[in-house]
Structure formats: C-alpha cells, structure tokens
Write a structure and sequence with these properties.
By secondary structure, the chain is of the alpha/beta class. The chain folds into 2 domains: 186 residues, L-asparaginase, N-terminal domain (Rossmann fold, 3-Layer(aba) Sandwich), CATH 3.40.50.1170; 114 residues, Rossmann fold (3-Layer(aba) Sandwich), CATH 3.40.50. Helices cover 26% and strands 20% of the residues. The strands form 4 sheets. The chain has an 8-stranded mixed beta sheet, with helices on both faces. The protein has a 4-stranded parallel beta sheet with strand order 13-14-15-16, with helices on both faces. Helix 1 crosses helix 2 and helix 2 packs parallel to helix 7. The protein is globular. The relative contact order is 0.11. Bound molecules: aspartic acid. The site of aspartic acid has 9 residues, from loops.
C-alpha cells in the first residue's frame, strides 16, 4: 500500500457559499466527508492541519508545514503529500516548500476557485487530480508541484493570473511541467535543480514596492532602514525605474540593505540593459540585485529564506540571481 498524506490548510476548497452568496469558512471541512474513489493500493491519511483563508497564512505557517512534511517522509513512511490551500497565497506556500525542502517523493498543492457547494465547484476534482499526481511514480524528483485544472506546474514559477476563473494558475514564459489526462500523468518538462536551504527560523521585514510612471523617492523615504532587512522592487519592463525613484534607493543601499529587483511584467526575465538615469544598467552599478524569472512575492520569500539561512554578501547575490 502506498501511503499518501493529505494536509488540509483551508481556502475556498473547504469553504461554503451561503444562500445570500457569501463565501464563508466552514466549521467542519467538507472535504473530510468526501468519499473518494482512488486506486486500491493507496492508503490516504487525512489531517486537518489548519483551516485558514490563505490571506491569513504567514511564513511561520509555511515553516510549520515544511516541518510537518519532513516528519511525514522521515518517520511515517509517507510516499507522497497533497496539500489543499487557498489559492490567493498558494504560490507562496508552494514556493517556500520548494525552496526549503527537496524530497524524492512528491508534494502537490491544490485548491479551488469555487467553494464546495457552488455549481461547477472545482474542489473535489482538483483534490482527486492532486492525489493522482502525488501517487504517480513519474512525479518523483520533480520538486514541489501545483496541480489545478488538469495542469501540473512547478512551484517555482507558477502564479495566480485570474481573480475567479478556474484556469487561473499559469506558468508564464515557460509553460506547465505536465498535464493530467483521463488516464495518464504526462510530464513534458524537467524541473530546475535548485539549491535547497533547510531553515529553522523565518523572521524579517522585507516589503515589496511597485514602480509606476512618475514615481519619486517619496515611498522609499518613508522606510525606516533600522526596521528593514531587505527590499523587493517590482520595476518597470526589463528592470528600470523613474530617475527620482532610483535616487531614493541610494539611502537604503548605503545602509547595506539588500535591494532585489524583479519586473512588474509577469512574462520574461529582468536584464540590466538600459543605461539612462534610473535604467537597469545604473541600478545594477548602484548595487541592486537583479532576480530573474520569479515574481515579487516569490523573490521576497527567497530573500527572507536566504537571510534566515545566514547567507549574505556575494553569496547572497549569486543565490538570488536565478
Ligand atoms: N480567498 C481564497 C483563499 O485564498 C481564495 C481561494 O481559496 O481560492 O483562501
């Protein structure tokens, strides 16, 4: 028997819609009452780990989840884990787990866009699909996966792209790792082989600031560097800022605070190619670290994890780059 551990954490997948159309947290997770037909050789162990709307999930919850997964693989003979999660921050929890643990057996996150009792609810279907992926031999050594709407995505690059559509999870630039068909789990891409930082704490203050036309130094001047462990900027295009905003970074960089740059475009990677005032070339010379291929919320977690792992200086720059 292959033992699969299910960790429910909350989100729409376990919520209920009231008669007046309000989506509310259910007292009892309806997924616990769901009779699933799975392969005979599966032993499903189901645990109500939490019952949180995902905007309530913090990096400390993610750390607790990571430790729960490690314990399951180490001590409980578990051969795959499915985590149900609210979709709003699902990509962050998935990225956190992917960055802090690398196991032979699959860890698969899933959620739903429609609550349990809504017409066309996608919860049970995604849940069942995630179990199929987590128990499939071909899902081993793939890092943490996100399975929604018949697609398999790597936690590293997947993002929520639509507020309500069931096809919300996408991997811009690279595309999904694989597909779930009626009869098969098919992978057509390999996952990246990344450095894993197995941390035990997750403290720090790293805000994200988004750039816009006409941006000045005002927002940066409001930041108290004594309370800052790092800063992530969602810059324009390939990685540029308006001139006054770039000037505002000087004080933060002078205080030795790591400043990470990603793009506000959801497709493509950042590059320091423009050499005008505030252009990527100038920002790089100032000491801003360009982070390629991941979005701001993931770059923030990556920096937080690196700082908690005690990485700094040149090593930090190398680690953050990709
Ligand atoms: N707001 C919900 C949550 O993230 C959305 C969802 O689960 O789809 O908890």
């Amino acid at each position: 028997m292959k033992k699969i551990l299910v960790l429910h954490t909350g989100g729409t997948i376990s919520m209920t819609e009231t008669a007046s159309g309000k989506v509310v947290v259910s007292a009892q997770n309806p997924l616990l009452d769901t009779a699933l037909t799975t392969e005979d050789e599966l032993e499903l162990v189901v645990e109500d780990f939490a019952n949180l709307p995902s905007p309530h999930v913090t990096p400390k919850d993610m750390l607790a989840l990571k430790e729960r997964c490690q314990r399951a693989f180490r001590d409980e003979f578990v051969k795959g884990i499915v985590i149900t999660h609210g979709t709003d921050t699902l990509e962050e929890t998935a990225f956190f787990l992917d960055t802090t643990l690398r196991e032979k057996y699959p860890i698969v996150l899933t959620g739903a866009m429609r609550s349990n009792n809504e017409i066309g609810s996608d919860g049970i279907y995604n849940y069942l699909t995630a179990i199929r992926v987590a128990s499939d031999e071909s899902s081993r050594y793939k890092g943490v996966l996100v399975v929604m709407n018949d697609e398999i995505h790597t936690a590293k690059y997947v993002t929520k792209t639509h507020t309500t559509n069931v096809a919300t999870f996408k991997t811009p630039t690279r595309g999904p790792l694989g597909l779930v068909t009626k009869s098969k789990i098919i992978y057509f891409q390999a996952s990246a082989d990344d450095i894993v930082l197995d941390i035990t704490t997750i403290d720090g203050n790293i805000p994200i600031i988004k750039a816009y036309a006409g941006m000045t130094d005002v927002l940066f001047n409001l930041l108290d560097v004594a309370l800052l462990d790092g800063l992530v900027i969602e810059a324009l295009g390939a990685g540029n800022l308006p001139p006054l905003a770039a000037k505002g970074l000087e004080r933060i960089l002078a205080a030795d605070i790591p400043v990470i740059l990603v793009s506000r475009c959801f497709n493509g990677i950042t590059e320091a190619i423009y050499h005008y005032q505030g252009g990527g070339g100038q920002l790089k010379e100032m000491g801003v670290i360009f982070c390629k291929g991941i979005n701001a919320q993931k770059a923030r977690l990556k920096l937080l994890i690196a700082l908690n792992a005690g990485i700094d200086g040149r090593q930090l720059r190398e680690y953050i780059k990709w």
